[in-house]
Each structure stands twice: as structure tokens, then as C-alpha cells.
Amino acid sequence: MFRIFKIALLTLIAMCTIFVSGFFIVLGWYSPSCGEDSEAVAFVRSLSEERLGKLYFDFESLSKSANVQPVYSSYGDGESLPSQFLDLKIVKMRPSRGYILVEGCMDHGVVMSFDGLKKRTKKKITLSWGEVPPDSGHEVIWVER
User: Fold this and answer.
1) Among 84, 81, 120, which Cα is nearest to 101's?
2) How confident is the model at residue 26 (pLDDT cuts 50, 70, 90)?
3) Mind giving me the DSSP string for the chain?
4) In angstroms, rounded to a whole number, what is the distance separating the alpha carbons of residues 114 and 124?
5) Are 113 and 97 spatial neighbours (Cβ–Cβ below 8 Å)?
6) Tens digit of pLDDT for each residue in 62-95?
7) pLDDT at residue 18 above 70?
């Protein structure tokens, strides 16, 4: 009796180990990249100067709207993205906080930050990526002329 119980327990442990290992392997294959060489950074860098300017002013208008929502999302975590942002490959926007999350990677991501929305500073969009140096960085991708 004890021998059957021991075999059953070892079999259960082995099956759980295989399942958990497989889960982490699959999760690793599908985890997005948020580094400088990621698809998200490449997408943002591919946007034209004209599109970035329009993006800034659409985002600014939305952030000042009386009906602005805390979160707009492509994945149902908040309100749906407004039509003027549907061509963008983004995860979510927070107009009242001044940023767009292009891609998320656990506790860091690829982010477009909008300066000059509430203060009288130069209007600009800064792209940032990664978690900590040397794998993180930022660059100004648009400045109002």
C-alpha cells in the first residue's frame, strides 16, 4: 500500500514539474521585448514627423477634455482607444498622466512621454525603453517647432 502511494506521489510531482516547466518555457517564448532593439521601439521610430506632431496634439486635446478617461486600452483594461489612435500599435494610454505604454514587460516597458501638456515647457515626445542601465535609454523623438 505504501509503495503504491509513494509511486503515485512521485508521479504527481513529476507531472507538476513538467507542467510548470512547460508553462515557463511557453511564457518565455511569448514574452515581449522592451529593449532598444524591440519591435515596439522600431515601430515608434518609424512614425513620421507629421504623425508624431498630430499624435501630440490629439493626445493633448484628449488630456484636456472634460470627458477624459483614466485609461484607454487596446486590450479591454479601460476604455477603448479613440479613433484617432487606432493606427498605433500600443497597449494603453493615460492622458491625464501624460504617457502612452507602447509595450509592457513585467515592471518596465516602451513608453512615449508627452512633455508640455500641463506646464509651459517645450512640447515634446520622449521615447524610453528598458528597465535599468545599460539596457535602458531614452530619446526625444518629436519637438514642436
Assistant:
1) 81
2) very low
3) -HHHHHHHHHHHHHHHHHHHHHHHHHHHHH----STTSHHHHHHHHS-HHHHHHHHHHHHHHHH-TT--S-EESSSSSEEPPGGGTTS--SEEETTTTEEEEEEETTEEEEEEEESSSSSS--EEEEEE-SSTTS-EEEEEEE--
4) 6
5) no
6) 999 999 999 999 887 789 999 999 999 999 999 9
7) no
